[in-house]
Design goal:
Layout: E1 3-4, H1 7-15, E2 20-25, H2 30-45, E3 51-56, H3 61-66, E4 74-79, E5 82-88, H4 93-102
Parallel strand pairs: 1-3, 2-3
Antiparallel strand pairs: 2-4, 4-5
Helix pairs in contact: 2-4
């Protein structure tokens, strides 16, 4: 299940060192809304293996600035407490799943 988190909650999750996939998005972004169900489905498939969270760039500007978010949707992979990869823009489920597999 995807959890909507604040900047501080995101930092706490990242600090644990386990894999985290964070979807930076906004309510007004069409491609973000298209990616939402795909991200949700993958969160269920990989439940227990990684955390899947969403950060609204409009309400959590600090996180967006910290991770250099200039375009959305932008899914960032974190592992061992560090940013390791990102997937920019809407991508089909198979491509996003390959991204998740690569960064687990």
């Amino acid at each position: 299940m995807v959890k909507h988190v604040t900047s501080s909650e995101l930092e706490e999750l990242i600090a644990k060192g386990e894999p985290v996939f964070c979807d930076f998005w906004a309510t007004w972004c069409g491609p973000c809304r298209m990616l939402g169900p795909v991200f949700e489905e993958l969160s269920e498939k990989y439940d227990g293996k990684a955390s899947f969270v969403k950060v609204d760039v409009d309400s959590e500007e600090a996180a967006a600035r910290k991770y250099g978010i200039t375009s959305i949707p932008n899914v960032i992979a974190f592992k061992n407490g560090a940013q390791v990869d990102n997937s920019l823009g809407f991508v089909p489920q198979a491509a996003l799943e390959a991204f998740v597999e690569k960064n687990l």
